[in-house]
Write a structure and sequence with these properties.
The protein has helices at residues 19-33, 51-59, 94-97, 115-126, 146-151, 207-211, 219-240, 252-263, 271-279, 281-286, 307-317, 333-336, 354-359, 361-375, and strands spanning 5-8, 38-41, 62-69, 75-82, 88-92, 131-135, 155-157, 176-178, 190-194, 267-269, 290-298, 321-329, 343-346. The chain is an alpha/beta fold. It folds into 2 domains: 51-271, Glycerate kinase, domain 2 (Alpha-Beta Complex), CATH 3.90.1510.10; 297-304 and 316-356, no CATH class. A 6-stranded mixed β-sheet has the order 3-4-5-6-9-10, sandwiched between helices. The protein has a 5-stranded parallel β-sheet with strand order 2-1-11-12-13, with helices on both faces. Strands 7-8 form a two-stranded antiparallel ribbon. Helix 1 packs parallel to helix 14 (361-375). It is elongated. It starts with a strand and ends with a helix. Belongs to the glycerate kinase type-1 family. InterPro entries: Glyc_kinase_flavodox-like_fold (IPR018193), Glycerate_kinase (IPR004381), Glycerate_kinase_RE-like (IPR018197), Glycerate_kinase_sf (IPR036129). This is Glycerate kinase. Keywords: Kinase, Transferase. It holds the Pfam family Gly_kinase.
Length: 378
């Protein structure tokens, strides 16, 4: 193939390479075999970790840092991005309210808060943005988004008219929601929420029962938190006229999905769909001969909203060949995804440890691409 056109649209390889670094390594491997090839590099993400960096890289934007409240009420320096258009912000809520910010022994969803995520939104409003992309994966919280709302002026009061403390447990004492001081700029902002969870807020499939155990909740805590969120949803419905209890996605990030639906004009969407839209990936794929995608590991979870799967579906719809690069691939992945990817290429040599492979990720991506293109006719 003379002067082939490649679209390079990988996710980051967590703990090893950003999506942009993967793109660059892919391009180097391609150029070793096809020096005149045209490579369109589109760093991708699925709304989780790496989303800020990927969209900033893809649009020529800028990353900023803000001092905000961490899940336990301390301080953390969290990052957010302003895209190249200057009017769209991108936030990963985990950077302010994420589980990774808390030591395993300190995890307690009874008291963790999304307040820092609200502070990040406020920082973006202060920069005059008109749109916010908010990824809400990886939370340490189960507070229904109450902390988020508190940071933006909402008051949650008990029967004695006292402000509730942070955390999901406190919602059991909720008597009144006062929105008189809510930041009015929220009404003029378009918030697109990258949310790949379809669970309702409460019940056996809700935020507390499904997700709180991984955040440190015991069985007793789970029941307590579920009761608190159910009460929270009832107060919202009775006082604000919004019924969020059974909305698909309301459970996301410990109920932050419900809080966003209550206090903002947010829309919940699949993360990969948002990223595809903002990067103009479809237009690039239409012009391509071959599409490369990838992530750190391709396994049975890849089909559930992960970047390579979304990219591949789009490429297949355009009749393009799709090749996935993976740090590692689960046994049977090629058979599982035979109708999705033409090839899955693991880059980790069998004789090399995972730690070593992660350190040398760019080298291995470049070599794997070059070896593949040398052996296969496109």
């Amino acid at each position: 193939m003379k002067n082939p056109i490649f679209v390079l649209a990988p996710d980051s390889f967590k703990g090893s390479m950003t999506a942009k670094q993967v793109c660059d390594a892919m391009e180097r491997g391609i150029k070793r075999v096809y020096p005149e090839a045209i490579c369109t590099k589109i760093p991708m993400a699925d709304g989780g970790e790496g989303t800020v960096q990927s969209l900033v890289d893809a649009t020529g934007g800028k990353v900023y840092e803000e001092r905000v409240t961490d899940p336990l009420g301390g301080i953390v320096f969290a990052k957010y991005g302003i895209l190249g258009d200057g009017s769209t912000a991108v936030i990963e809520m985990a950077s302010a309210s994420g589980l990774y910010l808390i030591d395993k022994g300190s995890r307690n969803p009874l008291v963790t808060t999304t307040y820092g995520t609200g502070e990040l939104v406020k920082a973006c409003l202060n920069r005059g943005v008109t749109k916010i992309i908010l990824g809400i994966g990886g939370s340490a919280t189960n507070d229904g988004g109450a902390g988020f709302a508190q940071a933006l002026g909402v008051r949650f009061l008990d029967k004695e008219n006292k402000d509730l403390p942070f955390g999901g447990l406190a919602l059991r004492e909720l008597d009144k929601i006062d929105i008189s001081s809510i930041d009015q700029r929220l009404q003029d902002i378009d918030i697109e929420v990258a949310c790949d969870v379809s669970n309702p807020l409460c019940g056996e499939n809700g935020a507390s029962f499904v997700f709180a155990p991984q955040k440190g909740a015991t069985a007793e805590m789970v029941s307590t938190l579920d009761d608190a969120l159910l009460h929270y949803a009832e107060v919202i419905k009775n006082q604000l006229g919004r019924d969020v209890k059974d909305v698909p996605g309301a459970a996301a990030a410990g109920g932050l999905g419900a809080g966003l639906l209550t206090f903002t004009n947010a829309r919940l969407q699949k993360g990969i769909d948002i990223i595809i839209d903002y990067t103009n990936l479809k237009a690039a794929i239409k012009k391509a001969d071959v599409v490369f995608t990838g992530e750190g590991k391709i396994d049975f979870q890849t089909q559930y909203g992960k970047t390579p799967y979304g990219v591949a579906q789009l490429a297949r719809a355009e009749g393009k060949k799709v090749i996935a690069i993976a740090g590692d691939a689960e046994k049977g992945a090629q058979e599982l995804y035979a109708s999705v990817f033409d090839f899955i290429i693991p880059i980790k040599p069998e004789s090399v440890s995972l730690d070593e492979s992660m350190k040398r990720g760019e080298e291995y991506v470049e070599q794997a691409i070059a070896d593949f293109l040398t052996k296969h006719e496109l």
